[in-house]
Amino acid sequence: MPKIPNVLVFVDGSGSMFDVAADLPSGRWGALRTALLPVIMGLQDQVNFGLAIFSGVMGSNNTCDFIFPTVPMRPSNYSAIMAAYPAGRLRDPSIALETPLSPALTMLPPMFAAAPKTGPSYVLFATDGEPDFCNNGNVVCPVDAAVAGIKQLSAQGITTIVMGLTSNIVSGTCPGVLEGYANAGAGLAIANPCGTHVASGECQGEQGWKDVATQLGRPITAPLADYVATGGGAKVYSPNVADQSSLTNTLASLFSGVKSCTFDLGNINGSSIRVDTSQLNKAEVKIENTVVPLDNANGWRINCVPAGDPACKPSQLELTGSECARWRMPMVKNIAFNFPCEIIVPG
User: Fold this and answer.
1) pLDDT digits (tens, 9 = 90+) for 184-239
2) pTM of the predicted model as reported, rounded to 2 decimal places
3) Which residue of 3, 95, 192, 294 is surrounded by the most CB atoms within 10 Å?
4) Can you spell out the DSSP letters for 157-204?
5) Which domains are present in the chain?
């Protein structure tokens, strides 16, 4: 059984996502949806997909009316996601849709807690701009809060992968916002995405920022995330949104990259099984009908589980190096494990 990952597709539903242009007749929203759904359909047996869309509307009482439709992460989830993923705008065009990212991030851990416990956890965060607290205030404050929120996800074992759906975000107050998200999501060092703008000096009057500080137990005399001079090198995916093939291929490659390269031996008639490692030369592994070599560096190997335990059992197969990379290619879907009976041992 492969360690099937849980992937939550986390989509920015702000108003700018629906802006149309000659090369984007359905906006970034429509382009992403058109590319995303077929990729999910093709990989739904190898990835537990879920969906979360976030936006908000500033109400008359100066509070943010939060918009957050979701689909829980499950196997074979394409139909549910397609049904819940609207083709059009989340509210009437006369209503301004904002980008309250921070409160949305706090809603994600419970979704992963309810997901199948079959593999690692990922968020694909697709956005076209900087966040806000529904009030279009100083962008430094919600950016700092969002980076801190994504870092919290990483600390809980949830990796965030960032897809930027615009080319002009670098012209804003916080030109490093996507890199900040990506590094925080990968658990790497984070450079201040807003350059010389420091949240603790600019956000004392921003209630949304102070609320997040309270939630995180951080003093308001410092930014909500710890920044260094040079951040890590986590990748930001930036496809040409107007090029449907580019967008589809990027998504396919990204999702295939989370396919598991480790496979656990299951049970036979209720009994656990392991492998006689002295006879591995009799076994055969094939990817798309091509033999994979028995090789610790670029092939397949058997791991003893749990690692480091003197009583561990050789009961996990792992693809390594170039063969793991080949398995994760978008078009590769078929793998076969041909082990003769004499090397499979009960217990």
Assistant:
1) 999 999 999 999 999 999 999 999 999 999 999 999 999 999 999 999 999 999 89
2) 0.87
3) 192
4) TEEEEEEE--S-GGGSS-TTHHHHHHHHHTT---B-TTTT--HHHH-T
5) 6-256 (3.40.50.410), 262-346 (no CATH)
